[in-house]
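Let us begin with a simple case.
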Amino acid sequence: MYATTLQILDEIFFLLLSISLILLLYKVFYHLYGLFPTKHFPAAKTQHRFAILVPAREESKVIGKLLQSFADSDYPTDKFDVYVIVERADDPTVAIVKQFPFATAFVRPNLNVKTKGAALDQMLRHLLSTGLAAAKDYEAYFIFDADNQISPTYLTEMNNVFDAGYDIALGYRNSLNWNDGWVASCSALTFSMINTFQNKCRARFAQNVLVSGTGFYISAGVINMLGGWPFQTLTEDAEISYYATLHNLRGAYNEYAEFWDEQPKSLRISCTQRLRWVKGYFQVNKKYRKPLVKSIRSSRTQRLGKIEFIMNIIPVVVPLVSIILYVIATFTMGVVGLCTGVLSTLWIRAFMSCGVALLGCYLFFVAYAALMLVAEHRRNNLRLGKAITTSLMFPFFMALYVPIAITALFKRQVVWTQIEHYTTDEAVTKEVTNAPQ
């Protein structure tokens, strides 16, 4: 009976892995496509006017670097305005903003809701209701975080995308602090994965993108129609991605429009941040899943992109859950066999099966991280020793999503909390300046 149970567990496990492989086949294609560079967008015929919105609550440590990167851009400063959104007039951020002629500090009139979405909504409603948006003739709105920095060619590259007629687009999100410990580098690596092994292929074949926080624009036509920023879930970036897909907005990704942000160095802060992301994903998925299914049935427009958004994390969850259940089952069988005096060959086999599954999963994620780092080595500036540490720790970093997801499922209220940023040192600034374009 014991041996039969072990055999059945093995058979079910391998069946689920086979199903997982089928589900992951298209992801393999995504990854292969992501290894090759894409063509540049054609040079724009017009230099369009943009508004750049930056929620910046108590961000005086980092806002200067972002604004200076706009000042150093090769895009004319009379073609864009930066609006830095603060919560009080005496925030030191305001004094820094005043040093840049193209930037304006906007003090939020209503602080009842402390979310990024609320800040963006108040800013946009102010621009639209006062007629300032029309007077300035803004054609698109960019969203950035205060800890970001852009490459000198970022705005020119994104102007090329906008000129090509895309409603929403984002650039290549890189990290300022790859070498600030394994938490920061593993976090940065997940965005490399989204950039190169997700959005590049998704934008090419489905004309939609997965916005990851910042560094993107949405056309003024869409904003005017919405009348503000109605995306108020914990992850407004994921919500705008789903909204754009549902409403057939043309999405683009430009890997040559590079920008940087700062990743958390503390594991506690990283987990807090990811808890909000996962809870926000559940909110967005619940809100948009049924409308996406209905849209697929009623229209063929962007059907591929909609199907993928419905699938979303299922191809990853199926093998992950299969491995977790198999490990729990085989470990339990090993303990039962050991305690009840079953033949040692059987309970040892159960423990070995458990260990092989765990080791195989670990080695897969190590190899995957190493391959990503090699593929992106020209962009990440990661030292060899730290690259090895990142590869070895990446499985643990990703495994933490399991308890985080369980917590998100059962925790009723998850709130947006401010992530403390640090002034970028000269070495990192030099890396940004000299980064390959």
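The second case is a distinct protein. As before, the sequence precedes its structure tokens.
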Amino acid sequence: MTEAVSPVSLAEARDASARGRLLELWRRYRRNRTSVVGLALLLVVVLAALLAGAIAPYDPYASFPSDALLPPSAKYWLGTDDIGRDIFSRIIFGSRVSLYVGLVSMTIAGFYGVVLGMVSGFYGRLADGIIMRLMDSLQAFPAILLAIFILAVLGPSLQNTVLAIGVIYIPAFARITRANVLSIKQKEYVEAARALGARDLRIMIRTILPNCSSPLIVQASLGFAYAVLVEAALSFLGLGVQPPEPSWGSMLGAGRGLISIAPWFATFPGIAIFLTVLALNFIGDGLREALDPHMSQIG
């Protein structure tokens, strides 16, 4: 007689298989040296955000008017702004804003984009027509102008900035999901699941979604970089995060008029934006190659 396989051994086998897939993914990812550099840079930003209270030497909101526009020194590592606030401390705390906006806005865009794309691709016909025309309408506007319009209606704030960025990025996730669903729903294993009596919702979540997750992960990582950049642009224009909340974009905007006499005021927040966006783009490229072995072979 054959011995019954215990649930524990099956769980262990699944865990071992998952660990094996993750190790293989990491092995392919680290082949791209720039993606490893990007991951290291992002880890620095994440640690700075998590440990901001311990790392920042000054309160980011505290101003010392007598120390206004001081250049970088041993006391103020990156100098001070026009009302005497420590730029280094504000950049450290500003990383929290950028990561929060990127994470939450991509969560919003990913959730609604995947749901709309899944319904559109799976059911087709009327649902597909209505949803895709809605996505076309959103994409007809330049992204930054649509974000400005949303913030003009709702009012400038951190939460509204997150919502605006999330809305403008929904079509990207919806189109990627729809394209993959149209291809995957014709596969034999989907027909087998339907023949076994699986409901549509179960087929979409358990069968189709895992098989189109790779491009969505890449899209999320690249979209994260885009969200950080858009938040900085909106804050630069005064429509995003409002003072005195530390934001790289608003710091850059406040320092642009003083660039000739206090170049450090705008330079260091700009460098923070540049390095974070660059790191996220490197990570996105590395994930794309790691999740698509054919692409890495072509490269």
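The radius of gyration is 23 Å. The domain at 77-298 is CATH 1.10.3720.10 (MetI-like fold).
Keep these points in mind for the review questions at the end of the chapter.
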